[in-house]
Amino acid sequence: MDDEQRKIEWKGEVVSIQPRSTVWRYLIDNRTHRECGYNIFMKGEVHPGSELLHHDRGSDRYDFCVAISEKQQAKMKIHIGDVLQGTGWTKKYPEIEFADYYRAGSLKKVNGEDSSARTMDVETDDVNVRYDGTPIPRVKSADYPGPPWKMEVPSLEIYAWRGGRMLSKASWKGKCFQCIWANMANVTVQYDFDRNLVRNRFETFCYGPLSCKYYSMGPARAVPYKGMSGVKDQGWLDEICVQYRTDPDE
Ligand code: SF4
């Protein structure tokens, strides 16, 4: 925990935008994803006051990551190539938040309004519905250039019904980094129910089409629980998470 949160100012170019999510894990019985906004990955500068803050990640994919809300994204339609400026706050709980800054404010497009990013058409499917009869909003990725899909991100509702599969971290860092379907999740592992102990970590997922040629699950993921060893998510939870897909090209 960081008791000295600071307000910062940032400016730079968007090199990727992805959904921001939390995931709750309990052994291999439950993996619940909740999409709560977007992470924008920036190349640029961060200033807490008059000094310049450097982020050294050993990677040149991005310099820093800012969490924004769904409302902010709906209003600003941020996409790769936008030059943005804004404010943000350093993290109170760095162990549970992947983005470097959150509570973003004063967002402004420095290079002007640009609506060049393509959006995916959404169709409402009232034939293949959810268990409660709710129609499903669907987009068909294969109708657009990709992979990776570098378009305007869809609404969080679209991500929520699609569900995510585990994606190898190497893929997330590499060829998937700019894809709208890539995701770095803030994960809570329920380690002990009786004492309500949890473990936190970050994991990579893919909300993209099941047919994507870039997809690689990576190694099975250990899900620790008190007094148990060797429990791993081998991928079958993925099948539950994407159960509402009817077309591998969605
Ligand atoms: S594997 Fe997933 S994140 Fe990577 S390019 Fe394909 S759809 Fe995008």
Please tag this protein with its features.
globular, two-stranded antiparallel sheet, mainly beta, 37% strand, 250 residues, 4 helices, 12 strands, 8-stranded mixed β-sheet, binds iron/sulfur cluster, OB fold (Dihydrolipoamide Acetyltransferase, E2P)
What is the topological layout?
Blueprint: E1 7-26, E2 30-47, E3 64-68, H1 70-76, E4 83-90, E5 101-109, E6 123-125, E7 136-138, H2 156-162, E8 165-166, H3 169-173, E9 182-192, E10 197-206, E11 221-222, E12 232-233, H4 236-241
Parallel strand pairs: 1-9
Antiparallel strand pairs: 1-2, 1-4, 2-3, 4-5, 6-7, 8-10, 9-10, 11-12
The protein binds iron/sulfur cluster (SF4).
So what's the overall shape? globular
- The number of distinct helices, counting runs of at least 4 residues, comes to 4
Radius of gyration: 19 Å
Domain count, please report it. 2
- The overall pLDDT, averaged over residues, is 93
Structural class: mainly beta
Kindly state the percentage of residues in helix: 10-25%
List low-pLDDT spans.
none
The largest pleated sheet is described as: 8 strands, mixed
Order of helices and strands: EEEHEEEEHEHEEEEH
Overall strand count: 12
Distance between the termini: 40 Å
β-strand percent reads: 35-45%
Task: Give your account of this protein's structure.
This protein is mostly beta strands and 250 residues long. It has two domains: 89 residues, OB fold (Dihydrolipoamide Acetyltransferase, E2P) (Beta Barrel), CATH 2.40.50; 119 residues, no CATH class. The chain contains four helices and twelve strands, in the order βββαββββαβαββββα. Strands 1, 2, 3, 4, 5, 8, 9 and 10 form an eight-stranded mixed beta sheet that branches. Strand 1 and strand 2 form a beta hairpin. Bound molecules: iron/sulfur cluster. Iron/sulfur cluster binds next to loops.
